[in-house]
Design goal:
Length: 348
């Protein structure tokens, strides 16, 4: 397909339904497969899931895990087949795990170029669970990839009708619209929430909305008041706000203060490294990414690994960057940006 990959689609599936990705009581081989998936060892995972199925472990859980492994390998046809087989094992039972598998199957359909099948599956989820706002959101995302702005906004409006104060979701809607060229329309969702909830919205939420609206002075003031928290997000947005204002030194201080007060955070180290790249402090940027990888397993390990490669490039160590990129591509074969970077590195 030539359409852009809807990264938010899979992120939403993984983040909002991650409870379905845990261990399965009494299913030793399935558990081993899930652990291999977490370690990005997809071939081992597939072997374990096949063994689990052969041993008579739960076919839905094992097949679902196998499909996730094939997604990791960017083998979408086998991912579709695995998810479909897994769902057939459910025997029509509408459980949280079967719905979770439906979401993954919808993503695999999309990646296989089967857009209509993906939308049909999301339609089915909505019919069975009309308050499933994730399905409305993801269907809206898919409509955007097809240029169907009006249909997308109908779905986004349905999401907000179900939960008008889900600020994370409102921001996801904004980012989706912004990605496809509807920045002003997306900003309208942010402004509407700010106006409606002006007296109840937290300083953090107000600050991050202002950040995306490029009202950096308001963002700075709100986030300064919200930063004294073990939650890394206020510090991240505050630092990014200072970066947007061109004050990279103070942004670095924000990130370091958080680490000193609350301990290591992969997200904070990643943003610190990005900030240092912008300051052309490549040695310390590299150090930040590497320390961040030691602290972070999920969800930003992939970003840290990619940025480590960028840091080596900026240091002129193209041999090391190429070696790391070769390994990166094995774990993340569907990263188009990495493919472009790989072509560049091969010319150095």
């Amino acid at each position: 397909m030539n359409k852009r990959i809807p990264a938010v689609f899979l992120m939403t599936v993984s983040a909002l339904l991650f409870a379905g990705c845990g261990m399965f009581a009494g299913h030793e081989l399935t558990d081993q497969g899930m652990e291999a998936n977490k370690q990005l060892d997809y071939q081992t995972a597939i072997t374990r899931f096949d063994e689990a199925i052969e041993a008579g472990e739960d076919g839905l859980a094992a097949g679902r895990g196998k499909g996730i492994a094939y997604l990791g390998l960017a083998d979408y046809e086998n991912a579709v087949a695995s998810f479909e087989t897994a769902l057939s094992e459910a025997g029509g039972r509408l459980t949280d795990l079967s719905f979770d598998t439906d979401y993954y199957l919808a993503y695999a359909y999309y990646k296989s170029g089967r857009m209509e099948d993906a939308v049909t599956l999301l339609n089915g989820i909505i019919a069975a669970r009309p308050e499933e706002k994730n399905a409305f959101f993801l269907r809206g995302r898919l409509e955007l990839t097809q240029g169907n702005y009006e249909l997308a906004t109908v779905d986004f409006d349905n999401v907000l009708a179900l939960d008008p104060s889900d600020y994370d979701c409102i921001l996801s809607i904004y980012k989706s619209l912004d990605e496809y060229g509807y920045t002003d329309e997306g900003a309208g969702y942010l402004k509407e929430a700010l106006d409606r909830d002006s007296e109840t919205m937290s300083e953090y939420d107000r600050g991050r909305f202002a950040y995306y609206l490029e009202d950096y002075e308001t963002a700075k003031n709100c986030l300064e008041r919200a930063r004294d928290s073990a939650d890394a997000q206020p510090a991240l947005f505050l630092g990014r706000t200072y970066e947007a204002l061109g004050d990279y030194n103070y942004a670095s201080t924000v990130y370091m203060d958080y680490i000193e007060k609350y301990g290591d955070s992969g997200e904070i180290y990643n943003q610190l490294g990005v900030c240092r790249l912008r300051m052309q402090d490549y040695e310390n940027a590299l150090l930040a990414f590497q320390v961040g990888m030691e602290a972070e397993k999920e969800p930003c390990l992939q970003t840290l690994k990619f940025n480590e490669i960028v840091a080596y490039e900026n240091l002129g160590d193209f041999k090391r960057a190429a070696s790391l990129m070769e390994e990166y591509r094995k774990h993340y074969p569907d990263d188009a940006k990495a493919e472009r970077e790989w072509k560049f590195l091969k010319t150095r």
